[in-house]
Amino acid sequence: MVSRIQPESYLSLKGIMAPVDGPLQCGPDQPCKDDSCCNSLENRGFIEIHCKGNGTVTYLSNCDAKAMCSKDSKDSKTTCGLNLCCSYYSWCGTEEIHCGDKDQEDYDTSCQKGYGKCEVVSPV
């Protein structure tokens, strides 16, 4: 059986997720090594799609995990330090995957305005 990588797992491979030794997927007997939420689709992360019930997805571990920035952070208003971008998945960074605007570019997700600067920083 071939396992398909879910979008959230793909994003972790692209550097949005904090680097932590451990599996990309989780389950009832395999909590996430980075303390993120784990749902019944074996997706992990810190935003509502990973941590809150919706009737079709059940949640397996650490369902009260908090994101680095955004409404999903501990105080629901944490911004990124150094005015970095807060990605759709609530990770701080400076790359297009954190800072892109899906309305202006061909991105699946957007930077969360109000939680940091939504502008790609080019290397000097």
TrEMBL record:
Cystine pairs: 80-92, 85-99
A GO molecular-function descriptor: chitin binding
InterPro entries associated with the record: Chitin-bd_1, Endochitinase-like_sf
UniProt keyword list: Chitin-binding, Disulfide bond
Keyword Zinc: no
Domain Chitin-binding type-1: 66-120
Protein name (database record): Chitin-binding type-1 domain-containing protein
Originating organism: Clathrospora elynae
